[in-house]
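Question (not urgent): is this output format expected?
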Amino acid sequence: MSVAAETGQGLRAYGQVLRLPGARSFVAAGILARFPRATLSLGIILLVSAATGSFASAGLVVAPLVGGMAIAAPLWSSRMDRHGQSRVILASLGCLVLAASGFLALVLTGAPFWTWLVAAFITGASTPDLTSAVRARWTVLAPPSQRNAALALETIADQMVFIAGPPAITAVAAAIDPAVAMLGSLGLGVIGGVWLAAQRGTQPAPAPRDPRRGLVLPPAEVVPIAIACVALGGVFGSFDVSLVGWAELRERPWLAGPAFSALAVAIAIGSVITGARAWKLSAAARFIVFATLAGVVAVGLPFAQGSVAVLFGVILLLGLAVSPVMVSGILVASARAPEGRVTETLAYPTAAMSLGVPIGGVIAGAALDATGPAAALVTIAVSLAMAAAIAATGEGLLRVARRR
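Got this back:
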């Protein structure tokens, strides 16, 4: 593994990047714009489990939703690179509103289950990856010495949504209705997306490409981390379903929201630390090392589920260990993005994680229905071990290829 030192200036690094022209405005817009992508899965778990009484069915509906997100995210992002972010963001938001409204109508009217699956896929495919759009702006605005802090700041922004979103959507779903919670999340996303689209001055310049170019495929050097991020996504899919089931079986469903927020708070704190310090290990090496460490921590989750306090303690440790993995994956993609494909390349880790979420959710949901939350929680540790192994193998193959 190569060793690469990155400039770190402590917590001052965050103040410096936020003082860059236009940074604060697109960061704020990006936080709101993330809400649909961050909370639609949980909203559907709550909606479908309430309608069917089955967590496995909820996981099945989430699968095409997140699969659609994973497939379409690089396509939307590629169009942003070619035509500019503003035009594509507005078009995608219009598609999302129509698709999500159709999905809600099908569920609320009791339409056949297969139509829910189709509508969920269309909704996912209509959801743009506005996280990659914001991160692409940092690659234009922030010099390389400030990228670690800037992209760590974006991970913190992600977690702000996960801190605020799950308890809010869970509370609204419990107090009013899951459909109302989903519509509220969608509304915040539309406001943030329109606000981001209006900020044309910080978006990357459009880069028209050779019209002969065929399929949209990831750059070869990003493939190992992208595949590893599928397993990393499985962590969050398993976590969502397992914790909802754990809270329901304890007859305290409201505990699921605080559990999600505990993980998000820990990831945010870990991201602050990650972006504020200088690292000797390369970003790819950090991904592998911390994924392994997080897997070791996750082994304790099934044993801790009998005590709320102990389980939350393990969740906090897990979040601290996972945060450098998430930041490092984005840094790898940023450093290896070809010219004119920055937004697209930055979409691959996020899309891969989205693809992994339903896989983890379906497996955890089946384990939850069959034997309970302990078995479901095991899938989190397995997913992290797979992420570390895939990344290590892929980086090794890349080193061999470079030598040739």
